[in-house]
Design goal:
Elements: H1 19-49, H2 62-66, H3 69-79, E1 85-87, H4 93-102, H5 108-112, H6 142-158, E2 172-177, H7 184-195, E3 201-207, H8 220-230, E4 234-238, H9 242-248, H10 253-262, H11 265-274, H12 276-286, H13 292-298, H14 302-309, H15 317-326, E5 333-338, H16 360-369, H17 388-396, H18 429-440, H19 446-450, E6 451-456, H20 465-471, E7 473-474, H21 483-486, E8 496-497, E9 502-505, H22 509-519, H23 522-525, E10 531-537, H24 545-553, E11 559-563, H25 581-587, H26 599-612
Parallel strand pairs: 1-2, 2-3, 3-5, 4-5, 6-9, 6-10, 7-8, 10-11
Helix pairs in contact: 1-3, 1-4, 1-16, 3-15, 6-7, 6-22, 9-10, 12-14, 18-20, 22-24
Length: 615
């Protein structure tokens, strides 16, 4: 982190608000309530209303959606700019679809068919959803990590002559479930992206402290904080909302804060579910009758006490608004936002609410609370306490919508003829591949300018050395070799510079495939096509297979070269070759696979591939 550029942020400080801001916050609260209703109703409709011949549960994660409703409403309706890109927590898909519906980017028919054939998807999908999905999510951890690699690729594109632009940089934003931080690929990505000077990235952690099966360990937040700071991120912890902050200033307030800080996650969640009377009984049990805290809680009714004790920052629109509006620099930022799983729903805080569904009786009560008339459940403005014209005008002028279409395209690049390399009568396909790329590096064609290679610490042994000698390694800032290093004779010229066309990665294959996902979506995310070419040892495809599947599912375009090819073992033996990986290529959807045995065959395949990935 560049400390000179860091700004001081005080998330508990209240920014002076004029009438316009207060009116906007009131409107955002109305939209949040509408988003929560639509996302909850969407799931209920799929499970209880829509024709379902087999009577099987459809599911849909009402509680997980509710915990992010406040944050996502603020982001999409106020904070985000057109250049920003968002990976939405998989289980918050209904909230995403509800927001897109209100913005006019989603159809009612899609919502009615949520989790059905050709309906809104269970998890946001670039290839299957019709609304404005930036990154597919689903396999947890991968959607979060790909935002960091996308930020690196945004820098790469903007530093090339073909990518020069005056348009503002976008922020790559991940909405991350706290249980996603159990995925190892998250930490591999953090470490790798730190090495490359990550910028313009926000990870907003939905810290509801409940995973699929259990309540998250109490000590997790401290470890999250340390890990991100160690990797050069700014960390903001948003814990208490303004109702609680106000209570802390009153007699007995300090004791209340200390009690909440010490309260185990499991107990806090249970009290959230049980309500105001339970809060009061527990606090009276823990503090004697003469304590100032008893007087403090005595000033609240049960409903007021419950509303205050559950007023966490992740649901406080004003605090979220003031915090995110302060973030105007490019420092990578982790926001740990305390939330309640199921916030605003009858099973909020219940330890079994992850897969839980509101029953018809609960849903009817929820409908009445939201002032939704029977038969008007899908109407965008039903139940909103503001004039429709005011809401319509605001939605029409939302920053995020002002650019129109956010999925770009780019020209198809002409592919020059690729001849068989000359100079040797006998070549392995591995050496032939390296020579073909090295020969291409001499070309001035636009296609060659767009080629970017990457490899997980096997660049030389997979024959990318000739290409790199001619094109260099990409670095935002030129890095000169030391005098001692320059005096060591080597065939490898590892010149690091902004004009370089190779991204050198560490040995983690998950990072390789996530980098390919970001590179291969560059034309749609950043309007400039890249031609990514990656190399690795053949059997290590298995190490990153989930991330490879993820990249293909996004329809990312890239060429993957696994060496050695073929089924006859090379001299290094079976440890670096597998007869199983060709089967991966055959069955992986969205991937065309070849096993070339001859270099002339390889040259033809490469020429075809450069055209194929531009379709």
């Amino acid at each position: 982190m560049n400390r000179k550029k860091e700004i001081f942020l005080n998330p508990t400080a209240k920014t002076p608000s004029g009438k316009d801001t207060l009116d906007k916050l009131a409107l955002l609260k109305q939209l949040e309530r509408k988003v929560l209703w639509l996302s909850t109703w969407m799931i209920h409709h799929a499970n209880y209303v829509r024709m379902n011949n087999d009577d099987l549960k459809v599911g849909g994660h009402q509680a997980s959606s509710a915990s992010l409703a406040s944050i996502m409403t603020l982001l999409y309706f106020d904070i985000l700019r057109p250049a920003d890109r968002v990976a939405v927590k998989p289980h918050a898909s209904p909230v995403f679809h509800a927001i897109q519906y209100l913005l006019g980017n989603q159809e009612r028919r899609q919502l009615e068919n949520f989790r059905a054939f050709r309906g809104a998807q269970s998890y946001p999908s670039r290839t299957k959803d019709r609304d404005d999905v930036d990154f597919s999510t689903g396999s947890v951890g991968l959607g979060a990590a790909v935002t960091a690699f996308a930020s690196l690729i945004q820098d790469y594109v903007r530093m090339k002559p073909f990518g020069k632009t005056d348009a503002p940089e976008g922020r790559m934003i991940a909405l991350v479930g706290d249980a996603e931080l159990d995925e190892g690929n998250v930490y591999e990505a953090l470490y790798e992206c730190w090495k490359h000077g990550l910028r313009n990235t926000w990870w907003i952690i939905d810290y509801n402290r409940q995973s699929l099966d259990a309540v998250v360990t109490d000590r997790l937040f401290g470890q999250i904080d340390q890990l991100f700071r160690m990797m050069g991120w700014r960390v903001l912890t948003l814990k208490f909302g303004r109702l609680l902050e106000d209570a802390f200033t009153k007699p007995g307030g300090t004791a209340l804060r200390e009690w909440i800080d010490a309260c185990p996650n499991s107990l806090y969640s249970a009290l959230v579910f049980r309500g105001g009377e339970a809060w009061r009984n527990k606090l009276e049990e823990d503090f004697n009758s003469g304590h100032k805290l008893r007087q403090l809680i005595g000033s609240y009714s049960d409903d007021e006490l419950h509303r205050t004790m559950t007023n966490l920052a992740g649901h406080d629109t004003g605090m979220l608004h003031d915090t995110f509006h302060q973030l105007q620099d490019d420092i990578p930022t982790c926001v740990i936002a305390y939330t309640i799983k199921g916030h605003g729903l009858p099973f909020a805080g219940h330890k079994d609410n992850h897969a839980g569904l509101m029953n018809p009786k609960q849903m009817e009560k929820f409908r009445v609370q939201n002032r939704i008339r029977p038969g008007y459940e899908w109407e965008p403005f039903e139940g909103i306490d503001l004039p429709q014209e005011k809401i319509t005008s605001y939605l029409k002028n939302v920053h995020f919508q002002q650019q129109g279409l956010r999925r770009y395209s780019d020209i198809k690049l002409e592919v020059p003829p690729i001849p068989v390399p000359k100079g040797k009568d006998l070549l392995s396909t591995q050496e032939g591949f390296g020579r073909i790329l090295a020969d291409l590096a001499r070309s001035k064609s636009e296609l060659v300018k767009r080629i970017v290679t990457t490899s997980p610490d096997v660049t030389v042994s997979t024959n990318l050395g000739g290409w790199i000698n001619r094109t260099g390694i990409f670095s935002r800032n030129p890095i000169s070799s030391s005098r001692q290093e320059s005096e060591v004779q080597s065939f490898q010229k590892w010149e690091q510079k902004p004009s370089g066309q190779h991204y050198e990665l560490g040995i983690a294959e998950n990072n390789l495939f996530l980098m390919l996902a970001a590179m291969g979506l560059s034309h749609e995310l950043f309007s400039k096509r890249l031609i990514p070419v990656a190399t690795l040892y053949d059997p290590f495809i298995y190490r990153g297979l989930d991330a490879l599947n993820y990249a293909c599912y996004q329809d990312a375009r890239f060429i993957l070269v696994a060496t050695p090819s073929g089924i006859s073992l090379a001299p290094e033996g079976g440890a670096h070759q597998s007869i199983g990986t060709p089967l991966v290529g055959m069955v992986q959807d969205g991937l065309a696979a070849f096993e070339p045995s001859y270099v002339d065959e390889l040259a033809t395949i490469m020429e075809w591939s450069f055209k194929y990935i531009q379709r």
